[in-house]
Specification:
The chain has about 280 residues and is mainly α. The protein contains twelve helices and no strands. Helix 2 packs across helix 8, helix 8 packs antiparallel against helix 12 and helix 10 packs parallel to helix 12. The longest helix is centred in the middle third of the chain and has 30 residues. It is elongated, with a radius of gyration of 21 Å.
């Protein structure tokens, strides 16, 4: 009995081994996905500078100006008022991240499933490793956006230019830098993470293509509709409280994103615990 207990895999060591493998296989070996962001961000920076010059504004747009421009989104469809439009650059950025994370978990499970069950002693640890890998991937993706924006703008100015905000559209509120950090940095990241957790869970329960389709479909719906039930709205500054009086508020939205992530983690753990990969 004692010998059998000693032979049980250490769950902490097993988790770390799996997580380090995820980092090696899907982050270090796929570094070029993050680099693909840079040309897109440079193009957006040049477009913002051009728009600023055409509008007759002096001075160089700052860090938060560029972040808002990247995540500004479009006006939702309103019959006879505004046509249905999609911000292509924003869509490409989101689809790139969805593609980066869509297929690896299921492919890894199908290739290494038997080995994981034997060496780790359970499937749930594998799921928790993938949850941490996904969180790290999304965090790194947004870190590349932020650090590239800081380099392009020459600093980390957290207060946007009120004159430049007026060029974007009807801006009703100018808050403190901490509020813009919540709305423009933290909320888009949390919403993106929640959506990708749903994608990973759907991929596990069905197939990766359905999870990827869910991400793209909810993004297109978010461009079309303004609704707090569509997380794509949380990533568009145009739909948030700083941009409109009845816009999406940050704290309830962060709570909802956290709840979605937690539900996905628990549901995936229960599924993996019952799944026989042998």
């Amino acid at each position: 009995m004692l010998k059998r207990i000693k032979e049980q895999p250490n769950p902490v060591h097993s988790f770390l081994r799996l997580f380090l493998s995820d980092i090696r296989e899907q982050i270090l070996k796929r570094w070029y996905y993050f680099v693909l962001l840079v040309p897109l961000l440079v193009y957006q920076w040049m477009s913002l500078c051009s728009m600023s010059r055409i509008s007759g504004l002096s001075g160089r747009p700052g860090f938060m100006d560029l972040i808002i421009y990247l995540f500004y989104g479009e006006q939702e469809y309103i019959p006879n008022v505004s046509p249905f439009k999609v911000r292509v650059e924003f869509l490409v950025m989101q689809v790139l991240l969805a593609y980066m994370t869509a297929y690896y978990p299921v492919r890894d499970l199908s290739v290494r499933g038997r080995q994981i069950f034997i060496r780790v002693g359970g499937n749930v640890i594998w799921w928790y490793s993938k949850c941490l890998w996904l969180t790290l991937t999304v965090g790194l993706f947004y870190f590349v956006i932020w650090i590239t924006a800081a380099i392009l703008t020459g600093g980390l100015s957290l207060q946007p230019d009120s004159n430049l905000l007026l060029v974007y559209g009807e801006i009703n509120w100018l808050g403190q830098p901490a509020e813009y950090v919540l709305y423009c940095l933290l909320l888009p990241l949390a919403a993106n993470l929640a959506v990708l957790f749903v994608q990973m869970l759907l991929s596990l329960l069905t197939a990766p293509v359905y999870g990827f389709f869910f991400v793209v479909f909810q993004l297109l719906l978010s461009f079309y509709f303004y609704s707090p039930l569509l997380p794509g709205n949380y990533q568009m500054f145009n739909r948030l409280e700083p941009a409109r009086g009845n816009g999406i508020m940050v704290l309830p939205s962060l709570f909802l994103c956290g709840a979605v992530i937690l539900i996905c983690i628990v549901t995936g753990a229960v599924y993996m615990k019952k799944r026989d990969i042998l």
